[in-house]
């Protein structure tokens, strides 16, 4: 399977098209059992399909090299919740 960085559509930053090494992190499982919900297989047939498994996790060996996970402060979260509370309450009540 040839990998194209252009196919990595979930990445928004063009300079970092993929955040995992595709040759090491994608496994294709061929002829995996398929269930009755698979739309490609007729309901009266037993079938197989393929699966792609993508390991896009941080390598454990590099755990000290990755930056800390970022997030919003508690104060910012509380402010956003307060700012939107009325709107969300209105939407949740169906008005």
- Give the mean pLDDT: 78
Major sheet attributes: 2 strands, antiparallel
Radius of gyration: 22 Å
Shape: flat
Strand content: 15-25%
| CA-CA gap between termini | 52 Å
**Spans of at least 5 consecutive residues with low confidence:** 10-16
Task: Report strand order across the widest sheet.
Answer: 1-2
Helix coverage percent: 25-40%
Write down how many β-strands occur, each being a DSSP E stretch of 2 or more residues: 2
Q: If helices are DSSP runs of H or I spanning 4 or more residues, what is the number of helices?
A: 2
- The arrangement of helices and strands along the chain is HEEH
Structural class label: alpha+beta
In short:
With 95 residues, the chain is an alpha+beta fold.
Protein model, in words:
The N and C termini lie far apart (52 Å). 0% of the residues are buried. The chain is an alpha+beta fold. It contains two helices and two strands; from the N terminus they run αββα. The protein is flat, with a radius of gyration of 22 Å. About 7% of the residues have low confidence. It has a domain of 37 residues.
Which helices and strands, and how do they pair?
Layout: H1 22-25, E1 26-34, E2 47-54, H2 74-93
Kindly list the characteristics that best describe this protein.
two-stranded antiparallel ribbon, 2 helices, 95 residues, alpha+beta, 18% strand
């Amino acid at each position: 399977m040839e990998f194209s960085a252009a196919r990595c559509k979930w990445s928004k930053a063009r300079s970092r098209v993929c955040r995992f090494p595709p040759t090491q992190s994608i496994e294709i499982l061929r002829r995996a059992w398929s269930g009755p919900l698979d739309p490609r297989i007729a309901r009266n047939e037993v079938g197989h399909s393929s699966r792609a498994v993508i390991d896009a996790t941080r390598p454990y060996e590099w755990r000290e090299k990755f930056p800390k996970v970022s997030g919003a402060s508690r104060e910012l979260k509380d402010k956003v919740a307060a700012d939107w509370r009325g709107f969300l309450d209105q939407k949740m009540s169906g008005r």
